[in-house]
């Protein structure tokens, strides 16, 4: 990747330093210029499951690459060990780039890692990334805000630390907003039921985007009453993002990141929209 020359008033990569870099939601071209420059100057790249191989590939041949990806019930390294690894590598005087899918501070555990690093006396820089909610919704053609449908946006998680789904349901079920749920596929039926129980209409538009912004992107849209069943029928699996609200109703008209799907090979389920991408 050839990067343009842009003068900025910040130092280059420093030894004994950790950079928490948001790698974006999947499409490697959504990586920021700052992130790309730091990867190209890294001594060590510590990366997650959702980081594109093309981004990891920007690191110099001499750089050590350490995979610490997490999937549901399958962690290469527990978070405490990742924290200790980052402290150790920085203590060895290395330029460490910690690559995280999306943005480090939005359901990326960047805050937890930074707390440990700062306590250990390690210098840290945070490089924001395109968070999954913004990037994936954009590639799916679902605007997160719209004057006719949503005046606010709420991000929440469907997977809490203790496993309980103890969320502020009355707040999440307010009308006139868009709700974006990270990591909620395994509890989707319960989430939809709770939103309806706390005030949202069962006919509220909702959708799930699997592997958003990548060539494997698939979108399923329905309503809260039928979304979980149709997502299951379509075989949607993590990583996937759920969007709830009137803006999802705009998807059929605004979807732009879609390939010419082979309907014979991938027939949509009745009443369900499934689009494969990309085409550009």
TrEMBL record:
Q: In which pathway does it act?
A: Cofactor biosynthesis; adenosylcobalamin biosynthesis; precorrin-2 from uroporphyrinogen III: step 1/1; Porphyrin-containing compound metabolism; siroheme biosynthesis; precorrin-2 from uroporphyrinogen III: step 1/1
InterPro entries, per database record: 4pyrrol_Mease, 4pyrrol_Methylase_sf, 4pyrrole_Mease_sub1, 4pyrrole_Mease_sub2, CobA/CysG_C, Siro_Cobalamin_biosynth, Uropor_MeTrfase_CS
Enzyme Commission number(s): 2.1.1.107
Q: Which GO terms describe its biological process?
A: cobalamin biosynthetic process; methylation; siroheme biosynthetic process
State the UniProt keywords alphabetically.
Cobalamin biosynthesis, Methyltransferase, Porphyrin biosynthesis, S-adenosyl-L-methionine, Transferase
Q: Which domain of life is it from?
A: Bacteria
One GO MF term: uroporphyrin-III C-methyltransferase activity
Coiled-coil stretches, from where to where?
none
Specify the signal sequence span.
Answer: none
Q: Which family does it belong to?
A: Belongs to the precorrin methyltransferase family.
> This chain belongs to which protein, by name?
uroporphyrinogen-III C-methyltransferase
Q: Which organism is it from?
A: Parazoarcus communis SWub3 = DSM 12120
């Amino acid at each position: 990747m050839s990067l343009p020359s842009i003068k900025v008033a910040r130092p280059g990569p420093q030894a004994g330093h950790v950079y928490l870099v948001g790698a974006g939601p999947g499409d490697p071209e959504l990586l920021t210029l700052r992130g790309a420059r730091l990867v190209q100057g890294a001594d060590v790249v510590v990366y997650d499951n959702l980081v594109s191989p093309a981004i990891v590939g920007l690191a110099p041949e001499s750089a050590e690459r350490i995979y610490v990806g997490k999937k549901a019930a399958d962690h290469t390294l527990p978070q405490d060990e990742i924290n200790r690894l980052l402290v150790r590598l920085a203590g060895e005087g290395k330029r460490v780039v910690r690559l995280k899918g999306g943005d480090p501070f939005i359901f990326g555990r960047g805050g937890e890692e930074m707390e440990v690093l700062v306590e250990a006396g390690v210098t840290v820089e945070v490089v924001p990334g395109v968070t999954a909610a913004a990037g994936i919704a954009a590639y799916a053609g679902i605007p997160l805000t719209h004057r006719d449908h949503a005046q606010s946006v709420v991000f929440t998680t469907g997977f809490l630390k203790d496993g309980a789904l103890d969320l502020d349901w009355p707040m999440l079920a307010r009308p006139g907003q868009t709700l974006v749920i990270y990591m909620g596929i395994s509890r989707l039926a319960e989430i939809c039921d709770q939103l309806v129980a706390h005030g949202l209409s069962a006919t509220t538009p909702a959708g799930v985007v699997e592997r958003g912004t990548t060539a494997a992107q698939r979108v399923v849209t329905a309503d809260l009453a039928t979304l979980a069943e149709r997502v299951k029928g379509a075989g949607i699996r993590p990583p996937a993002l759920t969007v709830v609200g009137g803006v999802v109703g705009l998807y059929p008209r605004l979807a732009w990141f879609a390939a010419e799907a082979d309907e014979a090979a991938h027939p949509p389920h009745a009443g369900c929209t499934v689009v494969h991408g990309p085409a550009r």
